[in-house]
Write a structure and sequence with these properties.
This protein is an alpha+beta fold. It is 46% helix and 16% strand. The chain contains 16 helices and eleven strands. Helix 6 runs antiparallel to helix 8 and helix 8 packs antiparallel against helix 9. The longest helix is centred in the middle third of the chain and has 40 residues. It is globular, with a radius of gyration of 30 Å. The protein starts with a helix and ends with a helix. The relative contact order is 0.08. The N terminus is likely disordered.
């Protein structure tokens, strides 16, 4: 029994066993690899997993000097990587080609689970444009090895970040493939050793992987350069006076509720209220991972058809509101690097109540950024150092806001939608009369419950658009 497990573990790597270390023990002692052909008097079946699982893995790692197949793969050139395979040569592509029936998750059929996972991995690779990703990664790796790369720190930083991002995606997909292969190997081993407990546990683990890999499919849709960033959502009323302003206010509220559903932080950065109702324009800051990746699906004109609450004749009106989305490219401190030589720092005596509260030291601080003329001051803290730190934080934030506005103006794709706020340019129609429906005109996805949509349930529209856009890009490629 021990020699069988040792040989299997050698082929599939110790990562299999590491996931089963919860089975408290494996062997009392590990035989030397040179003597694995000697007869061992171990109890057959799962009872032989008796002691030192972690010790077995540790020794195995030292003697075999590897920990997982995906790590070995990454030492090879990306274009010549060999596909990971089970002990009998079955690869993920083979599983897809076999077209094993995909049954309901409630069915305890390991082939069904394996087939579903393999199909998901294939879809993830398609969305990531796998072949192009590997070619690009090789190019970046070549550039990373150039000795003069860091002569231009800005360019080098950009290359390094892109290389790290693509490498992370490749390792993640390779890890999914390796995990699937490991599960299949363990199931086959348990079947050969007539170990129903181990087989059942392995099938459950494969089911959990089937469920979790669906999230990876979604993440693959958000593979853009800035998709993981937070964002600004700008809503602007179209022509139509009070009616359109009220509709723009409803759209802004819809995005607030959507962001809150996702656990994002929401801040109203700028808002111009309408004279009677709603807003003329507003800007929301949405803080959270992948906020921009999702929200970019909302860029465009949104059209509302309803009986106007502002029309005494109760006539049907059509209103428009435009939405633009801008990514926040990292933390504020990374947007603008402040050079101390560009600052004029003034210290003065802070104001306040007289008497014992009078400040007799120059603790207040005013900082001016000379190139832009932007200033920030603070006198609320008791020490000059604290006031300076607070003033610097305010200055950094104001410079960050200025830089974001400049970037938004330079990039027409983020702001063009605000000028096309009329008939023929809408991306989605919200009809409240004479029937009730919300329809995305880009994907034809529609629902008959506009109330839930206006309460922030727009994920299905977003996912439909992202999926459709990705499929079109892959078809064109």
């Amino acid at each position: 029994m021990s020699s069988i497990i040792f040989r299997r573990s050698y082929r599939t790597s110790s990562s299999i066993l590491s996931r089963y270390q919860s089975f408290s023990t494996l062997f009392q002692s590990l035989p030397d690899p040179q003597s694995t052909n000697k007869q061992q008097n171990h109890v057959s079946g799962f009872e032989s997993l008796s002691k030192n699982a972690s010790g077995f893995v540790s020794v195995l790692n030292k003697r075999l000097n590897f920990s997982c197949g995906s790590c070995l793969i990454n030492t090879l050139p990306f274009s010549s990587q060999a596909a990971v395979a089970t002990s009998d040569g079955l690869t993920v592509d083979d599983i897809v080609a076999n077209q094993w029936a995909i049954l309901d998750e409630s069915e305890s059929d390991w082939k069904s689970h394996a087939s579903a996972v393999a199909q998901s991995i294939r879809l993830i690779k398609k969305r990531l444009q796998w072949t192009k990703l590997k070619v690009r990664l090789e190019m970046l790796s070549f550039q990373m090895e150039k000795p003069d790369l860091w002569d231009d720190p800005v360019h080098a930083g950009r290359i390094s970040r892109e290389h790290g991002s693509l490498m992370g995606k490749m390792k993640e997909v390779n890890g999914l493939e390796q995990e699937l292969i490991d599960h299949i190997d363990m199931i086959k081993l348990a079947h050969e050793e007539n170990d129903p407990d181990l087989e059942s546990e392995s099938v459950k683990a494969l089911l959990r992987m089937r469920q979790s890999v669906k999230e990876k499919e979604l993440e693959a849709l958000l593979a853009g350069e800035h998709d993981s960033c937070s964002c600004y959502i700008e809503v602007q009323a179209g022509a139509g006076g009070t009616e359109s302003m009220d509709w723009a206010g409803m759209v802004m509220q819809m995005y607030k509720m959507w962001a809150q559903r996702h656990g994002y932080g929401v801040t109203v950065v700028d808002e111009m209220r309408g004279e009677i109702a709603g807003i003329k324009r507003a800007t929301l800051k949405v803080d959270g991972e992948y906020a921009y990746g999702y929200a970019k699906a909302e860029v465009g004109a949104h059209r509302l058809v309803r009986i106007s609450p502002f029309d005494s004749a109760k006539r049907r009106h059509t209103s428009f509101a435009a939405v633009a989305v801008t990514p926040i490219l990292g933390d504020a401190s990374h947007h603008v690097q402040i050079n101390e030589a560009d600052l004029r720092i003034e210290r003065y005596r802070s104001g306040g109540a007289g008497g014992q509260h009078a400040n007799v030291t120059d603790s207040a601080v005013r900082i001016t950024h000379i190139p832009t003329g932007i200033t920030a001051a603070c006198q609320n803290e008791r020490s000059q150092h604290q006031n300076k730190a607070s003033a610097m934080a305010v200055l950094q934030s104001r410079l960050d806001q200025r830089e974001m506005a400049r970037q938004a103006q330079m990039n027409a794709q983020y702001t063009q939608s605000l000028t096309d706020n009329s008939w023929g340019n809408q991306i989605r129609s919200y009809v409240l009369h004479p029937y009730r429906m919300v329809k995305d005109l880009r994907t034809n996805y529609e629902v008959s419950d506009p109330d839930s949509v206006l309460e922030g349930e727009i994920d299905d529209f977003i996912l439909s658009f992202l999926t459709d856009s990705m499929d079109k890009e892959n078809d064109e490629a």
